[in-house]
Here is the input.
Amino acid sequence: MYRMTPESAPNRVGVTGAAAGASNTRSPFVRLRELLGDTPPGQSPISLAVGEPQHPIPPFVGSVIAAHVAEFGRYPMNRGLEEFTAAVGQWLDRRYKLPRRVDPASEVLVLSGTREGLFLAGIAARNYAASRAKAGVKPALVHYYFPSMDDLFVAVLRDKAEHNLQRQREAIADAQPLHALWLLNSATDAQLFTEFLAMANHRKAIRSEISAYAMRFRDLEEGVVTLALKARGVDLEQFPPVVMSMIMGGLARMVMHEQGLGITHGHEEATAFIERCLDRFEMPVWDQATAQHSDPALSSGREVTSDTIA
Here is the structure.
């Protein structure tokens, strides 16, 4: 290995001009020696290990851990305990004197370590940049309309939710509404809502939007299932429409997600079973004018929901 002595070093720290560029090609050990200068050896080493604790554990921590050692056999919730996240928010407010208070529900995330947080922050920054590039707009314009990633996510979710509700209304108007709703629940873009469900675990704004959308979607679907079952003379106590709706939608999404993972076992049988049920309970074919005249829920012109059906 080439060994350079201090006497043979052609440059020193502080050299400017063309010689400064050449200094970057010298041995890093020589450059380190120059940086250390006259610092005497024998100082305490500094650990550069990632995540290495640098301070002793506070005295009170040991007794608290010992008192709750029986609880260490269970995994905590992804979003963390409300008491803990609230304490974190309060500490941040006190320590950094922030201009506004931290929202523990949406701005405090419990992680396994610092690197996980940096990784997630990198993903968010990359997604933000990718969204900006795909839209072909300047960063300032994106930040003007969507000051945070939550604002951007909520806007996308609302747009997709309204589009899906429109598709649901079209399915309800189909000659075979139950079959059409089954196909809608099996649509590939339903996987996007699963991604939003995952984010809803630690993003309060998304959780509220998901809840509002899901209630609207299920209420409309339950209304149509109720009409179909009543038209077929089915006992609604034995076959509650809300349960039938949940089974139909849940099974459709489960099959779709498993197919995305390459799992197909039992899918043919499940699909055949659902199709037999749909054929059995589907809305009967009748004269549309007669149907609207005999059923106030259809003749009113309002959306058919569980509340519009007597």
